[in-house]
Amino acid sequence: MSIEKVAKIAGVSAATVSRVLNDQHIVKPATRDKVLAAIAQCNYQPNLLARQLRTSRSRMLLVLVSNITNPFCSLVVRGIEEEAERHGYHILLCNSESNPTRESAYLSLLRGKVVDGVITMDAVSCLPGLTDMIGDFPWVQCGEGDPEFRASSVTIDNSQAASAGVYHLAAKNRQRIALINSDMRYLYSQQREQGYRKALTELGFEYCKIEYVEELDYTAGAKAMEKLLQNAPKPDAVFAISDVIAGGAMSVLHQQGLHIPNDIAVLGFDGVPFGEVTTPPLSTIVQPMHQFGIRSVQLLINKIKHPQLDDSHEILEWQLIERGST
Amino acid sequence: MSIEKVAKIAGVSAATVSRVLNDQHIVKPATRDKVLAAIAQCNYQPNLLARQLRTSRSRMLLVLVSNITNPFCSLVVRGIEEEAERHGYHILLCNSESNPTRESAYLSLLRGKVVDGVITMDAVSCLPGLTDMIGDFPWVQCGEGDPEFRASSVTIDNSQAASAGVYHLAAKNRQRIALINSDMRYLYSQQREQGYRKALTELGFEYCKIEYVEELDYTAGAKAMEKLLQNAPKPDAVFAISDVIAGGAMSVLHQQGLHIPNDIAVLGFDGVPFGEVTTPPLSTIVQPMHQFGIRSVQLLINKIKHPQLDDSHEILEWQLIERGST
DNA sequence: CTGAAAGCGCTTACAG
DNA sequence: CTGAAAGCGCTTACAG
To answer: The HTH lacI-type domain covers which part of the protein (chains A, B) (predicted)?
Structure first.
């Protein structure tokens, strides 16, 4: 079923059908009604590929996440989808697992005109080949903002938030605050570590111990916690780079019979729902995940509509929520 | 940059460039080399929309999930993406939140030729309008298999698994086994409830108490648990329809000072990673989530390639894992 | 082995 | 207000 056939049924030209389809009000009401009737009669739905090819607009957005399994990511994606829908856009999801081959396969959709722009939530910024692939296409980095790249960004002040986390723990009389950080490829990891070290210095604390994880999952958090408990003196607080990591750490502490927060305090990062149901509930630094998604889409669509626009870098507010674990 | 320009640079016709692009081996090696050089020289990437329009194959799959935030969903999506990539397909994600408007917007992409087929993980089956939209397009239901519909499916035997759960709890000397079930729109909810009731009858248990949740999140699980504890006699075991629900329930039990499993046992469903880090670790019925994703894609692509094929209904194996909570 | 031509199904100046 | 025609960028019989 094509526009040509609808036109024939309605007794008009394809151009007129197209005008009706696109809500152009220059069509005479009577004609319009005939067309609408024909469309309904044959249950016609335009071929979107043809339209996209012709207009060179796909109204699709590529979203590159490193791990959709991470609740932080899925909450951001939710915000992205909500806002995209509002603007008539659809989402193509690439769950990259930080796999460059897969990322580049998806990014080639930009040059292939299948998507109009991309939101990245992975550290593409350190994979030079990939940034070449993005080239001049509309791009916003979400949750991470490397000003070196020609991309807009939506983030929080990671360094400041991490410092605040350390001060919070210090206010709870903790002296030996360990950090479980993730892959230093991520700019946010670097920034949070910097904030952690800065606060430690300001406080005059000597204890400074950092364990790195390669994946942001419970198992990685558990392993890191085990390592942290091996050397003396043991920490009396752990600051985890993500709530998921904190969850893994807490399970090890329970196993070893340590009391949270008396023996050791635990502070997370992200503000993911499961932090509300841990034992004890997890204190954490909340990122505005939903808002991350919404603003990212707004910036991206703005850039798609006005390509000559300058990149903008948004810093949203974080918030420290104290629950039972600190 | 179009195929025409590449052809001009290489001194051949567009048809020849197209043949090289599509790896057709009838091209003379010398010609082939010239073309490849031209492609490299101008960094050419074919317009995928044009190709898709011409071949009427988009190599895109639509995935409809009700809530990407649910770890069950994201683990299945991961499997889907992995297998799709293997076949050269990309994923369009619709996080429907069970919102019919959004679902139908995405489903219209089927008739719009933007996607070649759809995998649903939501209860579209009870939204008649939506199944009309899917029409005769390739469709597989994942995690739910309603034989009434013209769709293939990949599931487990939900009724059998639920019965086994009840028997497991009975073997732990539980007599008052409550069920926290989800929305009865879902076929799997109906099937699991049926398995639960069947086992209860077989065991001759009189206690039978079911609480329903509308959302599959921690909060909903917590609320349901609170209600369950309000009437006497209290249950000595809770069987939750999902691990996330179980997590919410456990937090309430901890708050009320009840010991798990001594005072009350908790059994989950899904086998999601966070069940490993609860206190105590969660016993659960594991669904092969990754395999769900993989098989769904295989069935779907098979159907895309051979539309006349009959629908197939696959039942995969579940597994009861006993951890500390039962 | 290669090219000229038609066509996928739309949209959009242009002319009337 | 409407239609004829061109064109988006590919692929694919068809002919040579």
So the answer is: 1-55
The mean pLDDT values, 10 residues at a time, for chain B of 326 residues are 88 92 84 90 92 94 93 95 94 89 92 95 78 91 88 96 98 97 92 97 96 94 96 94 97 94 97 93 97 98 92 96 96
CB spacing of B279 vs A254 below 8 angstroms: yes
Question: Six-digit token pair at A2?
Answer: 């094509």
Give the span between the Cα atoms of A230 and A233, in whole angstroms. 9
**CB contact at 8 A, B277 and A244:** no
The pTM score is 0.93
Alpha-carbon distance A91 to A114, whole Å?
A: 11
Q: How crowded is residue A55: how many other Cβ atoms within 10 Å of its Cβ?
A: 10
Amino acid of residue A195: G
Q: B49 and A112 in contact (C-beta within 8 Å)?
A: yes
Place of tokens 């895309």: B304
Per the CB < 8 A criterion, the answer to whether A282 and A250 are in contact is yes
**pLDDT in the model for residue B30:** 87
Q: How many CB atoms lie within 10 A of CB B230?
A: 8
CA distance A313 to chain B (A): 27
DSSP state of B275: G
Nucleotide nearest to B19 (CA to C1'): D11
Identify all chain B residues contacting A68, using CB atoms and an 8 Å cutoff. Answer: 68, 74, 77-78
B78 touches chain A (CB under 8 A): yes
Burial of A211 (0-12, 13-18, 19+ CB in 10 A): buried
Measured CA to CA, the distance from residue B252 to residue A226 in angstroms comes to: 28
* 3 state SS of B152: strand
Statement: the CB of A224 is under 7 Å from strand C: no
Stretches in chain A below the pLDDT threshold 50? none
The neighbour count for residue B114, using CB atoms within 10 Å, is: 25
Strands laid side by side in the A209-213 sheet: A209-213, A177-182, A237-240, A265-270, A283-286, A319-321
Structural element, H or E, at residue A244: helix A243-255
CB A316 within 8 A of CB A142: no
A127-170 pLDDT, tens digit per residue, is 777 888 898 999 999 998 888 888 999 999 999 999 999 999 99
Q: Report helix, strand or coil for A156.
A: strand
Residues 6+ apart with CB under 8 A from B58: A49, B52, B113, B114, B115, B116
Task: Dump the DSSP string for B7-42.
Answer: HHHHTS-HHHHHHHHTT-TTS-HHHHHHHHHHHHHT
CB B108 within 7 Å, strand C: no
Which residues of chain B form beta strands (DSSP E)? 60-65, 90-95, 117-121, 139-142, 152-156, 177-181, 209-212, 237-240, 265-270, 283-286, 313-316, 319-321
